[in-house]
Amino acid sequence: MHWQPLAERNRQPEWMDQIGIDATAHDQALNGLRRINAVSGAVGSLFTPLQALARERNHSQPLRILDVACGGGDNSLALAERCRKAALAVQVDGCDLSPQAVAIASGHAADRGLNVRFFQADALKDPLPLDYDVMVCSLFLHHLDDAAAVDLLRRMGQSSRHLVLVNDLIRSPLGYGLAWVGCRLLSRSPIVHFDGPVSVQGSFRMAEVLDLAARAGLRGARVQRSWPERYLLSWRRPLGALQAP
Questions:
Q1: Is residue 223 part of a domain?
Q2: What CATH number does residue 30 fall under?
């Protein structure tokens, strides 16, 4: 990995995305990411708007949430746990392209006694389900080029009944430094050591992601900064609007 200026995105192939990655190395990397996600507290920024929506609806049916491109399911499980502690009626599911990631996530759900269903799906090619109230996506958008990111945001908006939430890294010197140090402190995985800083180099700035949302037709989308040097993009379907922004 070579340092690159952060004025423009610098997308590089990440080791975690390589086909045929060693299963043991993959598992080690996912464990490292689990610790990083726990320390980052990213679920807190997702939970606040979900809690508000759940209380606003106050329906007898649980709020259905899909975590798109969920990886090892860390955020899906943490979100389900947080909602359970808050006595919110929700059903959290997750989907990912990798069957290995789905198997790992399903195993962790069973170990923790959480009713979270994981299934295999290609978020970039397969149709997104239409029966979820909320579409969530964490740490995936930075993997995509602009056109693919716009397309994913558009399809999430079209599929979600009420709310779209995207949590990801901010491309900045602070974000790069936090990724470099944090990945080495919290994981021994060479994959995590490489992919963390590279992810920041390929990520968006807040103004850029807001522009992507506008191009995706998510009118009225908002973006706010969250710890540690992440953003939360949120879009709420207008009351009475058809399910196609």
A1: yes
A2: 3.40.50.150
> Could you tell me which residues are beta bridge partners of residue 68?
95, 137
CB distance 177 to 236 below 8 Å: no
Other Cβ atoms less than 10 A from the Cβ of 184: the count is 15
How many residues appear in the chain?
Answer: 245
Ranges under pLDDT 50 in the chain:
1-2
Residue 191 in domain: no
Is 200 domain-assigned? no
Residue 10: what pLDDT?
A: 86
Is residue 190 included in any domain, yes or no?
Answer: no
Range of the domain at 97: 21-169+205-236
Q: Which helix (H) or strand (E) holds 30?
A: helix 23-40
Given a contact cutoff of 8 angstroms between Cβ atoms, the answer to whether 162 and 236 are in contact is yes
Contact 192, 29 (CB under 8 A): yes
Q: How many Å apart are CA 51 and CA 56, to the nearest integer?
A: 8
Give the single-character DSSP code of 204: B
**Tally of structural domains, the chain:** 1
Q: What is the pLDDT of residues 53-91, one digit of tens each?
A: 988 887 778 999 999 999 889 899 999 999 999 999 999
Q: What are the DSSP calls for 160-181, one per residue?
A: -SSEEEEEEEB-SHHHHHHHHH
Read off the tokens for 106: 């399903």
**In the block, residue with structure tokens 């992440």:** 230
